[in-house]
Amino acid sequence: MNRQFADRVKTIKQSDIRRYSAICGAMNGVNLSQGVCDQPAPDAVKDAAKRAIDEDRASYTNLRGITELRQAIARKMRDFNKVTCDPEAEICVNVGSAGSFACVALSTLNPSDEVIVFSPFYGYHVNLLKLFGITARFVDLKPPSWSYTQAELEAAITPKTRMIVLCTPANPSGKVFTEEELRGIARVAEKHDLWIATDEIYEYITYGKEHISIARFPEARGRTFTMSGASKTYAVTGWRVGYTIGPAEALDRVAVVNDLLYICAPAPLQYGTVGGMNLPESYYIEMRADYLAKRQLLADTLRSIGFTPFVPDGSYYMLAAFENGRWGTATAATESILNQVGVASVPGSAFYRDPTLGDNQLRFCFAKKMGDLEEACRRLRKLGARQSLAAAV
Ligand code: GLN
Of 37, 59, 184, 343, which is the most buried if we count CB atoms within 10 A? Predict the structure, then answer.
C-alpha cells in the first residue's frame, strides 16, 4: 500500500520531553525529564472525583464545562488573578491547557499567520502552531535573568503577526514576567492589534515573586486568552482538565472548537477539580514551601557536580548549564547521565529557536516526591564535580 501522510506531520516528531521520559521508564531510572508531577493529589480532589463517579456523573458535560467548575474558576480568577469574568460567557473548560491552546489557536489564527513566542519555549506551543501551519517568530530570553528588551519584542512583529504567546511562570526557564514586561507586551499588542495567549499553568508555583496575569490590565483584557488548569496545582497532570478565560465573543468560538475536537473534558474529573478549587489558602502555601525545598536541593546538587543552575523564580523546572568539554552536546549529556546514573533530564536544545543556544544546558524537573528527588540527587552526585576538568585534558 502506498501510504500517504499529511504534510503537516512530516516534520513533527515525538518531543524530547516524552522521549527521555519513556527511555527512563524502560530502564527504571529516576525521571526528572517530563514534568509529570508524580506527587499525591490532595484527598479533596480525589474524593470529589470518586463521588462523581459513584453518583454516575458520567455523561457529556455542557460544551463549556460543568457550571460548578466555571463558577469556581470565576471566583479564583477574581481572588487570585484579579480578573473578573462571567462564568456563563467568558470561561471554557478544556482538555488540559494544551487543549486550551489548541482551541485558542484554531479559533483565532489562519495558516501562514505569525505568532510571537519567547525562546526558550515550551515545545508544545511551537509544535501545535506548526501543526496548524502557523509560523512562530521568536524573542530571545537571555540567561541568567531571562531578560529581553521592548525593542526586541517590537522588532519581531511583522504585518503577518496576529498573536503573542506567553508562558508565565515559564516552562522551561522559570521566568516570572514582571509587571513592566507585561505592560510592555500589552502595549505592543494594542498598537498592532494582536491577540495575547498566556499559559499560566504554573501560576501557584512561585518563589517570592508575584504571579501577574496580563488580563488584569484593562488594556489587555479584551484581547487576552488566559489558559490554565488543574494539572500542576493539584498534581493531576494525566486528568487533562484545563480552561480558558477570554472575551465572550472569542470564547464562543473556543467553546465550539473544544466541542468539535474533544466534546468535553472528562466529567468526573471536572468535579474533582472543583474539590481542589475549594481548598484553603494553606494548601497553596504548603505546596510552595515544598517546591522551595526541592528547588534548593536540586540547585545545590547540580552546583556540587559542576553545573551552573539557573534557579527558577517559578515553575518546577530548572535549566542548568554545563561545560561542553564535559559531555559534548546536550543530547549526549542527557544520554550519558541517564546511562551512567539512571537519571533522566531533557536536552536544553529542545527548548530553543536555535537548538545550539541550549546545547550546553539540561532541564531537570523537581516535581517529585522528596524521597525520589533525594534518590535522583544521590545518583547525580556520583557524577562528581571534577569530571569536566578530567575530560578537558
Ligand atoms: N508540561 C510538561 C513538561 O514540560 C509535560 C509535557 C508533556 O508531557 N507534554 O514536561
Answer: 343
